[in-house]
Amino acid sequence: MFDKSTWIKLPRNVLQGHGVLDDLADAVAELYLSGNPLLVTSPTPERIAGDRIRAQFDGISSVSLDRASFESVERVVEIAREKDVGYLIALGGGKPIDVAKMASDHLDCGFVSVPTAASHDGIVSGRSSIPEGDTRHSVAADPPLAVVADTELLAEAPWELTTAGCADIISNYTAVKDWELAHRLKNVEYSEYAGALSQMTAEMLVGSADSIKPGLEESAWIVTKALVSSGVAMSIAGSSRPASGAEHLFSHQLDRIAPGSALHGHQVGVGSILTEYFHSGARGEWMDIRDALSTMGAPTTADELGIDDETVIEALTTAHEIRDRYTILGDGVSEDAAIEAATITGVI
Ligand SMILES: [Zn+2]
């Protein structure tokens, strides 16, 4: 009997381009949402674009958050209930989007993503990650109903945020390899379509490396397009597998051991060099990953991440403990093997 079924949740409207922030209300009108919006943001994006958004909606309320935390999520939920809002608009880099995503899941309402930095694929995906103590809580929520990515704003973001977004996309290479491996060894469900889309996204980004330069608005365009496409791959897969493998476990472990040292994308980029080495050996494709990262100005060493060698080795040898996700790290790499991989690849 044929009994397979699948549910793919995608953003309904994706607007990308110069000045599209002023089309936010049109993009929202097409979603046929009811009620007033609550703008969820943080101080810097509020200053840059808060008024431009409020000018487009009657009856909009706003909340500006200092950090991503469970208290922030609760605060948003509380204000949303108090004001009886119909949906959330998340404006900012990662934090307001993560908070709004989680809050909208609690409230059972939709949210619209208005990224001000192309720094990671969370701006389009359904994954939300909130720090709690020395760990991070990653939850599966619905993706945004719409994404409005204004390249004029995104190009003004600090350059390192864009290179972090690039590195997050480049890590798709190893994420897909880990997913295929888990499929072969552990019978984890694999979507050929999502895997191919995720890999192609990384290839296209690497192919455009020459157009990814500071001060070039086209860079924001290329990276955002890749982040959207990576988010679509995750939606098709119904999991973060197409864009998150051992290199993400490594980064999550760095977040625990050395919180706040480097950007998520930069950590997974370096993680990708290391896990690619485990996948294909000394003469394998890790050099391609390293070269792509360095061409785009993303870190390729522990030093450039601002993390010491011992911490990198500790993260690499313990990353498999983070969650029940089978990857090339299997049930753990030995310290000797970790040191050898990190040394040969020049990470330490
Ligand atoms: Zn990521």
Query: In total, how many beta strands?
Result: 8
What's the helical proportion of residues?
Answer: 40-55%
Largest sheet: 6 strands, parallel
Topology order in helix (H) and strand (E) letters: EHEHEHEHEEEEHHHHHHHHHHH
Provide a count of the helices: 15
Q: What is the rounded Rg?
A: 20 Å
**Dominant shape:** globular
Q: What percentage of the residues does DSSP assign to strands (E)?
A: 5-15%
The overall pLDDT average reads 94
CATH architecture of the largest domain: Up-down Bundle
CATH fold-level topology of the largest domain = Dehydroquinate synthase-like, alpha domain
Record the strand order, biggest sheet.
1-8-5-4-2-3
Distance between the termini: 54 Å
CATH superfamily of the largest domain: Dehydroquinate synthase-like - alpha domain
Q: Which small molecules are bound?
A: zinc ion
CATH class of the largest domain: Mainly Alpha
Uncertain runs: none
Count of structural domains: 2
Structural class by SSE content: alpha/beta
Secondary-structure map with pairings?
Blueprint lengths: L12 E5 L6 H6 L7 E5 L1 H12 L6 E4 L5 H14 L3 E6 L1 H14 L2 E6 L11 E6 L2 E6 L5 E5 H6 L2 H12 L1 H15 L5 H16 L9 H21 L8 H12 L6 H17 L5 H10 L6 H4 L3 H10 L16 H10 L4
Parallel strand pairs: 1-8, 2-3, 2-4, 4-5, 5-8
Antiparallel strand pairs: 6-7
This protein binds zinc ion.
Descriptive overview:
This protein has 348 residues and is α/β, with parallel strands linked by helices. Helices cover 51% and strands 12% of the residues. A 6-stranded parallel beta sheet has the order 1-8-5-4-2-3, sandwiched between helices. The protein has a two-stranded antiparallel sheet with strand order 6-7. Helix 7 runs antiparallel to helix 8 (192-207) and helix 10 packs across helix 11. The chain is globular, with a radius of gyration of 20 Å. The structure holds zinc ion (ZN). Zinc ion binds at residues 120-121, 168, 248, 264, 268.
